[in-house]
Each structure stands twice: as structure tokens, then as C-alpha cells.
Design brief:
single chain; 160 residues; alpha+beta; eight-stranded antiparallel beta sheet; 2 helices; 8 strands; 20% helix; rod-shaped; signal
Length: 160
């Protein structure tokens, strides 16, 4: 009777220790994701928020390091847009989110409306960096000298 008690005690202890080891040795390689903070709208002058892609970062549906972020435009596409000089390939930044790891992501839309999403903007929300840089979309023109203009055939049609 004592030997069967010893056997059951040893078997119970072995099973308990095996379960304890199995519970402790679970893999700790679960990927951790960043969390995004609150969204805030950019308040600066709209012409100061015109940006162009640098081609170093992709465009995402959510900030790139947040769980569930999907690629809207790959790095290669952004590089193609960066080398283009068409007005439709520029972007307008209109919002910003900062992750818990300190990364800043700007909410941008292309001038033609084809691409919209978040792009990495560095570690500071005071200046564009990372995947975008400021763009001068307007240029100053010289004022023409005072000249007199004469119409060849002045008329009254289409005059209101």
C-alpha cells in the first residue's frame, strides 16, 4: 500500500513539474507593435504643408509600426513619385500622429487624390523629415513693367 502511495505521489509530482515547466517555457518571441497616440490636425498655413516624397519610406493606411497597417504605396512607388516633377505627384500633409516609441507619422494626400495615408516623418512634429520633405509648389514671378495694352478690335460683345 505504501509503495502504491509513493508511486502515485511521484507520478503526481512529475506531472505537476512537467506542467509547470511547459507553462514557463512558452515562447516569448511574440512581436510587439507600437501604439499610436491621438490624431491632431495641422494648423499651419496650407502652402507650408505641401510636401514631396523622398522615396525612403512607404505610405501606410495606419502609422507603419502599428498593428494592422497596410501598404498603400510601396517604397518603390514613393521613389517614383519623388523623382517625378508632375504637380499631381506632390502631397499635402494635413494631420499627425505620434507613436508610443516617439515616431511621428504624417497624414498626407497626393494632389490628385490617388494616394492617401500615413508616412514616417521623423522623430519631431515641428519639421518634415523621414519619408517627406517640404516642397516649394509656387515660385515668385517678376512683376512686369508698366505697359499700355491696346485691343486690336474692341467691341461690346461679351462685356458685362
Amino acid at each position: 500500500m505504501q509503495s502504491s502511495l509513493k508511486k502515485s505521489l511521484y507520478l503526481g509530482l512529475a506531472a505537476l513539474s512537467f506542467a509547470g515547466v511547459a507553462a514557463v517555457s512558452t515562447t516569448a518571441s511574440a512581436k510587439s507593435y507600437a501604439t499610436a497616440g491621438a490624431y491632431s490636425t495641422l494648423k499651419t498655413d496650407a502652402t507650408k504643408r505641401n510636401v514631396e516624397a523622398t522615396g525612403t519610406n512607404a505610405l501606410y493606411t495606419k502609422p507603419g509600426t502599428v498593428k494592422g497597417a497596410k501598404v498603400v504605396a510601396s517604397k518603390a512607388t514613393m521613389a517614383k513619385l519623388a523623382s517625378s516633377k508632375k504637380s499631381a505627384d506632390y502631397f499635402r500633409a494635413y494631420g499627425v500622429k505620434t507613436t508610443n516609441r516617439g515616431s511621428v507619422y504624417y497624414r498626407v494626400v497626393s494632389m490628385d487624390g490617388k494616394y492617401r495615408g500615413y508616412i514616417y516623418g521623423g522623430k519631431s512634429d515641428t519639421a518634415f523629415a523621414g519619408g517627406i520633405k517640404s516642397a516649394d509648389t509656387t515660385t515668385k514671378a517678376t512683376m512686369p513693367t508698366n505697359t499700355t495694352v491696346y485691343f486690336k478690335n474692341p467691341g461690346t460683345a461679351n462685356v458685362t
